[in-house]
Amino acid sequence: MPFGRRRNRIDRSLRERGVPPEPQHKERVVVETSGPWDEDDAPDDGIARVDLGALRLPARPGTELRVDVNQQQKVIGATLRHGDSLLQVSAFAAPRAAGIWDEVRADLARNASGQGASLKEVEGPFGTELAGTVLAAPPPRPDEPAPKPVRRPARFLGVDGPRWFLRGMITGPAATGPEEAAVLENVFRDIVVVRGHEPMPVREQLPLILPPQAAAQVAQQQAVQQARQIAAQRQAAARPAQPPADGA
Predict the structure, then answer these.
(1) What is the spatial distance between Cα 122 and Cα 112, in angstroms, rounded to a whole number?
(2) Which member of 14, 15, 155, 205 lies 3.0 to 4.6 Å from 19 by CB, making a disulfide possible if both were Cys?
(3) Residue 236, pLDDT above cutoff 60
(4) Which CATH number fits domain 46-139+146-212: 3.40.50.300, 2.40.400.10, 2.60.120.1690, 1.10.3720.10?
(5) What pLDDT, in 10s, does the model give residues 140-181?
(6) Structure letter (DSSP) for residue 191
């Protein structure tokens, strides 16, 4: 008798007697990688990383980290600068069984084409990526109308991990020059993703947080701004009312 059939009969007999079968634990499949890393597989490499919650970004000499926050002081993105080049990174929830980079790549290329830009698939250090141009608006200047978007070189990197997807966009000289790209590629490779155990919809961005020191600075700035607003309101309320003009 085949072992599998015998095992099923034993389990069925146990269930009929009210005895639950032994749990069958599925071993986690570990895929060899050189980075980016999942939290469970991150090496003890001694690299200092900035903890943003779902992302731990390496602090490399010569790079500058900018954390983007909205009006509610919620972190919505992280950008690393090296010279005149930028690396924008985001992490998203993904299915347990399959990755989403193929679908995301097709969506990015389609959107770029619809906006008058162009992205094509090429092979890079992290597998298939997108390279070409995207439309981006230059920084606005004071007392001038908003500038029109222009085409800029860009690369999109994507890595599927266990229940997460990491996306990176490189712009500036590093988007076209291999030497300029080396530093930002190494930064991307050394990122650690912390997925967490909470169920999340596919493609929903993993939550990011401000580092403690940055959070304290933001809280201090908010307190100072609030105090100024209260002082201005009190001064306005304390001013004597102006008498009505003659003939009014």
Answers:
(1) 16
(2) 14
(3) yes
(4) 2.60.120.1690
(5) 777 788 888 889 999 999 999 999 999 999 999 999 999 999
(6) -
